[in-house]
Design goal:
- There is one protein chain.
- The chain is mainly alpha-helical.
- The chain has a domain of 117 residues.
- Strands 1-2 form a two-stranded antiparallel sheet.
Length: 179
């Protein structure tokens, strides 16, 4: 039988897991917005988005600390280390044959949150990869533009005449960077 303390701490953990779910959903929408703003090249909106991300990250730190404290408390109540306590183990502890109906409902709620978090984490990983690919393509495109405008990636080829005078090969570039 699981102690009532575990049930109370699990209810608090469910609230934290709900906050984690909202945070991941928000991160997904921010990644989508980031990609659209990059494509449209809306610099002011990108700056605003960066500020919003920083504010949300600071606010989320409190939730992370609360989760860690609850995890520590639950580990102590269940007689295991903090590293051994996972959502799967907590779910198993709350679904044993000696558990009350309320504890089984808590176990089912933990399983629901766990499944939702797994789904969101997989989706976030995919969206992160897509965003990274877009950023990589943007960087590659910008390097290509610089090569066209400045010639040979801005390095400028220097050649020497028979008299020893330096001649820079700027004929291929659209713009000369010589002063």
């Amino acid at each position: 039988m699981v102690s009532p303390t575990v049930e109370i701490k699990t209810a608090a953990l469910l609230e934290v897991l709900d906050a984690d779910i909202r945070h991941l959903e928000s991160a997904l929408s921010r990644l989508d917005l980031l990609r659209s703003l990059l494509i449209r090249r809306e610099n002011a909106a990108l700056e605003q988005l960066l500020g919003d991300i920083q504010q949300q990250a600071e606010a989320y730190r409190a939730i992370e600390q609360k989760r860690q404290q609850l995890r520590n408390d639950l580990a102590l109540a269940l007689g295991c280390t903090e590293g051994e306590l996972t959502l799967s183990r907590l779910r198993k502890e709350l679904s044993g044959p000696t558990c009350s109906e309320a504890q089984r409902r808590c176990g089912a709620a933990v399983a629901d949150r766990q499944a939702r978090l797994r789904s969101l984490a997989a989706q976030l990983k995919r969206e992160h990869t897509l965003t990274a690919l877009l950023l990589r393509d943007c960087a590659r495109f910008n390097r290509s533009l610089l090569r066209v405008f400045l010639g040979s990636a801005g390095r400028g080829c220097a050649t020497y005449s028979p008299t020893g005078a330096t001649q820079r090969g700027t004929g291929a570039a659209l713009m000369s960077i010589q002063f």
